[in-house]
Amino acid sequence: MSSVTIQPFEGRSVCLFCGSSETVSPDYIQAAKDFGRQTAEAGWRLVYGGGGVGLMGASARAAHEAGGRVLGVMPGFLRSRERLFDDVETVVVTSMHERKTIMYDQSDAFVVAPGGVGTLEEAIEVLSWKRLDLHGKPVIFLNLNGFWDSLVAVLEHSIAERMSPESFRQAWSVCETVEEAIAAMQQSDSVPRLQHDLR
Ligand code: AMP
């Protein structure tokens, strides 16, 4: 692990997992902007992957422009590929694992917006940690345009086939709009912070 310094933040933070693609429908980019702005207006810090591209860049710029705190976490080898957005607090780390560890540790809730395989990997990892009782933080799918319906169906299927327990259904929630996702993360006040870290 590299040693990074992160500015203290007294409030609550949401980690946004979302796509880096630049070629998506403008509706997704607009939703990412709305999420960034509404996160700032709610007084929450946005923690994200540090890139200036796709939904990532759109959400971070909007949160910053609305006066919110933003923390970007970028592995050095992706700086140019994901066009590091350094108008906000940014830490550059050595690996994907370190990126995810910091994003995880610095957040009180996770919102999963539409994205590609990177977003999928990040969402599945925090769900698998929750399945193992490593944390109790909310995992909220921002299901724009039904984007996550098929993933949620697979998760439900794993419960129906008893590969996962019934209780696993409580590991995530699904919101259809940005406003609902912002409300869901704000309702998570009583969620316990990390109890034990065995990752
Ligand atoms: P994508 O959804 O594929 O556009 O990727 C979204 C973000 O996830 C990008 O910043 C990727 O660099 C990041 N990402 C992809 N795989 C990983 C991983 N294993 N650990 C951390 N971040 C990742």
Mean pLDDT: 94
Helix content: 25-40%
Number of strands: 7
CATH third-level topology: Rossmann fold
Oligomer: single chain
Number of domains: 1
Main attributes of the structure:
Rossmann fold; 6 helices; binds adenosine monophosphate; alpha/beta; 199 residues; seven-stranded parallel β-sheet; single chain; 7 strands
Outline of the structure:
The chain has helices at residues 26-41, 54-65, 96-105, 117-131, 149-160, 178-186, and strands spanning 13-17, 45-48, 70-75, 89-93, 109-112, 139-142, 173-175. Helices cover 37% and strands 16% of the residues.
Task: Describe the fold and architecture.
This protein has 199 residues and is of the alpha/beta class. The protein has one domain (13-186): 3-Layer(aba) Sandwich (Rossmann fold). The protein has six helices and seven strands. The chain has helices at 26-41, 54-65, 96-105, 117-131, 149-160, 178-186; strands at residues 13-17, 45-48, 70-75, 89-93, 109-112, 139-142, 173-175. A seven-stranded parallel beta sheet has the order 4-3-2-1-5-6-7, with helices on both faces.
Layout of secondary structure:
Layout: E1 13-17, H1 26-41, E2 45-48, H2 54-65, E3 70-75, E4 89-93, H3 96-105, E5 109-112, H4 117-131, E6 139-142, H5 149-160, E7 173-175, H6 178-186
Parallel strand pairs: 1-2, 1-5, 2-3, 3-4, 5-6, 6-7
Helix pairs in contact: 1-2, 1-6
Bound molecules: adenosine monophosphate (AMP).
